[in-house]
Amino acid sequence: MKNILGANDEVAALNRQMFAERGVIVMNLLGSPGSGKTTLLEKTLARLADKIKIAVIEGDLFTAKDAERIERAGVDVIQINTAGGCHLDAPMIQKACAALNLAELDLLIVENVGNLVCPAEFDIGENFKATVLSITEGDDKPLKYPLIFKESAAVVLNKIDLLEFTNFDLKSAREDLTTLNPPIKIFETSCTRGTGLDDWTAWLLSKVAK
Amino acid sequence: MKNILGANDEVAALNRQMFAERGVIVMNLLGSPGSGKTTLLEKTLARLADKIKIAVIEGDLFTAKDAERIERAGVDVIQINTAGGCHLDAPMIQKACAALNLAELDLLIVENVGNLVCPAEFDIGENFKATVLSITEGDDKPLKYPLIFKESAAVVLNKIDLLEFTNFDLKSAREDLTTLNPPIKIFETSCTRGTGLDDWTAWLLSKVAK
Question: What pTM does this model have?
Answer without folding.
Answer: 0.95
